[in-house]
């Protein structure tokens, strides 16, 4: 293993809070600080050795304005000398943070970096930054012949293009809840979740899960974006609160610190795709990553494809020919939520822990992103 490999030595997350739920009163800076403190507690490193903190956050307004990552460093009690940057690549923000931190470590610019993200969607609502101004510009709308760009409309387009029926989407959504429930019940998330002290109680478990969800129950929900549509609240991701982060360093530094890495960040890709359909980017991002690494989809033992809407992972499965049993094996955002800026790091944390638990060599994550971009990242388990 090259000394300039980027390896993850620790990965943690908060439990995911539902909208206006257990984490609604916790400031995004304080949620983030919990992650930073836990990474230091688990690794025993001096936080002053961290070269940079790269932190994803999407709706950078109000509580989440003014470089959330930097103020998380200060809230965590880390030295003033530790810098931080807050990244916005829409829903892939913290996945991009992980990749950017890995790039810096591999290049030799950093020896130790922390990457992750946060989103408090209860306190800073989705779309709050778009309530004033004109976010896209008329030239873009004219280029594509649209009045606006909407993810829900894009999800409907994907369902139509790939011939996905409402029943198929609802079957998938129900399965996400079943998988997440099974993972929670067997303790699959226990070691990765840090307890959040709420004063009157300790919050430890993802709370968006709806046990007993069935396709028949989902069939009673009204479409959200078109009267004759197939997308509704039950087969789309949940509005949520949460934070997650990973510690990345060179393998040489990990050895010097007597830390056992969990996984190596093998490669990553980022692509742009149709901004109107918007959510298909994980398909070419994965294709690009596989071509770059020389692997086939059959070489990948576990895959986290963010469940922004049920058509996203289903269309991805069809195009890539992936084994459905390997895709989102512990449930996903439909079941437990999608705190935007944290989701990339949450997926990474779930994935590499699942790889370690099951002895899976390669794992892949990909995330669709507003505007039609997508990241894909490949991890290799370190025995």
UniProtKB/TrEMBL annotation:
InterPro entries: Thiolase (IPR002155), Thiolase-like (IPR016039), Thiolase_C (IPR020617), Thiolase_CS (IPR020613), Thiolase_N (IPR020616). The lineage of its organism: Bacteria, Bacillati, Actinomycetota, Actinomycetes, Mycobacteriales. Residues 260-379 form the Thiolase C-terminal domain. Residues 7-251 form the Thiolase N-terminal domain. Belongs to the thiolase-like superfamily. Thiolase family. The keyword Aminoacyl-tRNA synthetase does not apply. Coiled coil: none annotated. This is Putative acetyl-CoA acyltransferase. It holds the Pfam family Thiolase_N. Keywords: Acyltransferase, Transferase. NCBIfam families: AcCoA-C-Actrans.
